[in-house]
Amino acid sequence: MAHPLESTIRAAYAAFGRGDLDGFLKACTSDFTFHVPGHSAMAGSYRGQEGIYQLAGMVTDISGGTFQEEVEDVLANDNHAVVLAYHQFTRHGASKQYRTAHVYEVRAGKLAECWEQPRDMAAFDDAWGRRQ
């Protein structure tokens, strides 16, 4: 039987895919932080509602609105969750794609902190472009 948090996470990712950032944030703590590794334009830590809006804006700008995320699997328990995802988009006319894991710390049934863990860091950095 799936952990109840799995359906919450799937709904949050569906909301994000529709551009409903507030819908995504309903699954998160108020101080939710998303950490993006590497040396790309996306690298950094994004905290709270303002941070998620900033991150989503960068995703839209860099991908020209073509970003698509497919949730391949969700693993969850009371303390942690992992989302396995496939990302694809177009940047400057070139198709970009990579697989990644979003590793979450869970507090009181909400997503509290996330670490992006790309399968191939070089492909991830290439997809998003170098930091200016």
Strand order of the largest sheet: 2-1-6-5-4-3
Helix content: 25-40%
Main pleated sheet:
6 strands, mixed
CATH class label: Alpha Beta
CATH fold-level label: Nuclear Transport Factor 2, Chain: A
- The count of helical stretches stands at 4
N-to-C order of helices and strands: HHEEHEEEEH
Global structural class? alpha+beta
Round the mean pLDDT to the nearest integer and report it. 96
**What ranges have pLDDT less than 50 throughout 5 or more consecutive residues?**
none
C-alpha-based Rg, rounded: 14 Å
Total number of beta strands:
6
Outline type: globular
The CATH architecture is Roll
Strand content: 35-45%
Total of domains: 1
Question: What is the distance, rounded to the nearest whole angstrom, between the alpha carbons of the first and last residues?
Answer: 46 Å
What are its keywords?
single chain; 132 residues; alpha+beta; Nuclear Transport Factor 2, Chain: A; 6-stranded mixed sheet
What does this structure look like?
The structure is a single chain. This protein starts with a helix and ends with a helix. Helix content is 33%, strand content 43%. It is of the alpha+beta class. 26% of the residues are buried. It contains 4 helices and 6 strands; from the N terminus they run H-H-E-E-H-E-E-E-E-H. A hairpin with a 7-residue loop joins strand 1 (28-36) and strand 2 (44-47). The chain has a 6-stranded mixed beta sheet with strand order 2-1-6-5-4-3.
